[in-house]
Amino acid sequence: MPVRQVATVIVILTILFPYIRVLPLPTDVQPNFLIAIIICSPLLLSVRLNELVVFVGILCLLLSYTIANPEMQSFRGWPAYLTPPLVLFFTRSVLSKPESAPMLETVIRRSFYIWVGFGALQLVTHSAIVQLTLRTSTSADRGWMSFSGEPSAYASVLFLFAAYFVVKQSYVSAGIALLTVLVVAQSAVGLVYFVILALAWLGVRAHNHVLLVAIIVILVVVVMTTVDPQYVLDKLPRSRRITRLIEILLSPDAQLDDISITSRASDLDAAYDTLINGSPFGHGLGGVRLKSGWGSYVYELGWFGFALASGWIVFFLRQATRMGRDALAATVAIIAMLFSSTPLAMPMASFIVLAIILAPPDSATPDRRGRWRRIGVRSAHA
What residue ranges are annotated as transmembrane (predicted)? Predict the structure, then answer.
């Protein structure tokens, strides 16, 4: 195997297994990708001039904030801003080689089954087996975490795999990911991610969006008015997080009492308050880290962070609309996930989006009529 191909596989693995601890660093998401891409950059990266200018601008912005608060803690905020552009450079370079696209998909699929298999092994043995991450946070009423630090992080990883498989129309693999979230990870947050993905997929697939919305509203009203919430809850194990999610959805009082919801809502409110009422330069690096990927950008860098987050979102959506309806649904769902507790320092989030929206035309999947779908792009023969 050529050296370049070996280096590519190594970097992809650091992206798909972001929590495995190689160096003794006190972070959940390990900087393995940043280290690997810096070492392998002469072999792997080809950067466009406009992208390089933006990247240098981000570096200068981070440097100015770090000078304003010259503490080691400030440098811990850098990966959230450097990871997405570096993942973009890497993914574009990989997909520019025709022989690399099938290899990338193969590595993604095999990594998924390794994630699923290791989590299932933990479920069967009722043990974390081996400490591979900074922390192993679980308990008797929670699920297992495979190669991550906690069940919610495991569910986020499975959701990203599922979004990729939906675009590839590998619905069996996406179903396995959902089943693993329910049975192994047992994560309420993960279930919410899958609901968002399903709604986004239905939204872009429906021929009559008004009819779809009407059906959903009618179903919700019927369920809320005819089903006794307490009867449903009494039939479910009270110790499970999924039961707690159902209780939260059915009871407004439970929503106010749930610390997971209130903490995430308060973090988003803090980002909004920073944008509207706070300093235009934000709170700076090295302070409080919000449980929100996009929210952290705004909270730390103010309007600069808002511009960065908006730029990434617009770029993702613009590219996704050119790749078809399934790509758009998956991209919307992942963007929504990044409003939650998944940090932008996790390279897998931006990598899966970019692997979807930058895929070469030959890797596209046909629709039911056998034609290659591209929203917003006309055929050369039209």
Answer: 7-23, 52-68, 74-91, 112-131, 151-167, 179-204, 210-233, 297-317, 329-359
Q: Please enumerate in sequence order all residues whose Cβ is within 8 A of that of 137, keeping only pairs 6 or more positions apart, or say none.
A: 145, 149, 150
Is the dihedral angle over the CA atoms 274, 278, 279, 283 positive or is it negative? negative
Query: Is residue 256 in a domain?
Result: yes
Question: What are 32's two structure tokens?
Answer: 């393995």
Is the pTM for the entire model greater than 0.90? Answer: no
Whole-angstrom Cα distance, residue 193 to residue 142?
18
Cα–Cα dist 121/4, whole Å: 33
Residue 34 belongs to some domain of the structure: yes
* Domains held by the chain: number: 1
Could you tell me the CA-to-CA distances from 215 to 98, 192, 195, 224 in Å, in that order? 43, 20, 16, 14
pLDDT tens track for 135-194 = 666 655 678 888 888 888 899 999 999 999 999 999 999 999 999 998 898 887 888 899
pLDDT by residue (tens digit) across 208-235? 566 666 766 777 666 656 655 555 555 5
Confirm whether 138 is domain-assigned: yes
Q: How many whole angstroms separate alpha carbon 136 and alpha carbon 252?
A: 32
Structural domain of residue 304, as residue ranges?
3-363
**H or E stretch including 203?**
helix 188-205
Q: What is the pLDDT of residue 380?
A: 36
Phi, psi of 128 (to 5 degrees): -70, -10
Residue-by-residue DSSP string for 334-346? HHHHTTTT--TT-
The answer to whether position 382 is within a domain reads no
